[in-house]
Amino acid sequence: MDEAPLPDAARVGPFFALRTGSGDPGAEGYARIGEAYRLTGTGAAGPVLRARVEAVAASLRTDEPRVAASLVFQGLAARVWSLALGPAVLSGGVPHLRPDRLWWNPGRVAPDDLWWPGAPSVMGEPGRLAGPVGTAACVHLVPLHQAIERAYQVSGRLLWGNAASALAGSLRVLHDWCRAHGRAEAADRAVELARAQLGHPPLRDAGTLSTAPLGYRRRSCCLYYRVPGGGLCGDCVLREAPGRGIGRGTPG
Asked: Domain of life, per the record (predicted)?
C-alpha cells in the first residue's frame, strides 16, 4: 500500500496534520474514534462522545448540552475535511482514515488529537478525487451526525450546515495557503473539490459558496450565539442574535 500523502498538507496548519508512527494509543489516553459514534442502549451518548461534549460545555461555560454537541460536531468536521481535502489538493491522494483504526484523544488539540499508528492507505487517482474526499469525511460525519442528532436532540439540518461550514473553513485556509505559496493551480483545485462536496447531498442545501471573493453563507445556525459571550459566525444565516430568553426553539 502507498503511504498517505500527509506531510505536504501538514505544512498548511495543525488541522491538516495527523499524528502517525508507531506506539500504543490506548496507553496514552486515546480511544478508537468509532467509539465516539456509538450510543448506549437507551440512545444516550457513549462515554467518549459524552466526555468531549461535557469538556466543550465546561470550556464555553454553557449549560446547554446540545449547543456544546453542535460545536463538537463542527470541530471534528473541520478536522476530517482538512485531512481529506489537504492531501487531495497538494499530493493527489486521500488518506483512508477508517473509524475502526483512527484513534482520538479529545483532550488534546490538533494535530495530536488524532493518531493513526503507521501510515494509512491512499484512495483516489488524479482527476478523480471528489468521490474519495467525500468518502474520507463522510465515513466519520454520517455516524457522528446520527449519534449527536439522537443523543442531544440537535437538528439534523443544523448539523449538516455545520459540516458544510467546516468544509468552507478548511477550504479558505487551504486556498489562502496555496495562493501565498505560489500554487495557484492547487488553490483552484481546492475550490473545485470543495464545490463538488457542497453540490451534492447531504450538503447540497446547506448554503451557498461564492468565489469572488471566496466565501460561504449557510442556511442554518450552529447555536454559538447561545454561548455566554458568543455571537454570530461570519457565515451564519442570522443577521442578529436572538435573545437567550426566546425559548429553546432556536434556528436549525
From this structure: Bacteria
Where would I find the H helices in the chain? 6-10, 47-60, 65-91, 130-152, 156-180, 184-198
What burial letters (b/e) apply to 87-105, b meaning 16+ CB within 10 Å? bbbbbbbbbbbbbeebbbb
- Mean pLDDT score, 193-204: 96
Report in angstroms the alpha-carbon separations of 153 from 7, 26, 65, 146: 38, 30, 9, 10
Percent of the chain with pLDDT over 90: 84
Residue type at 143 in one-letter notation:
P
For the record, the C-alpha cell of 230 comes out as 458568543
* CB neighbours of residue 143 within 10 Å: 17
CA distance linking residue 22 with residue 200, whole number of Å: 37
Of how many residues is the chain composed? Answer: 252
pLDDT value of residue 243:
66
User: Is the bond preceding 111 in cis, omega lying within 30 degrees of 0?
Assistant: yes
Question: What pLDDT is stored for residue 165 in this prediction?
Answer: 98
CA distance 102 to 18: 10
- For the cut 60, the answer to whether the pLDDT of residue 245 exceeds it is no
pTM (2 decimals)? 0.92
Supply angle C-alpha 99, 178, 197, rounded to 5.
45
3-state secondary structure of 172: helix
Cell 450565539, residue located: 225
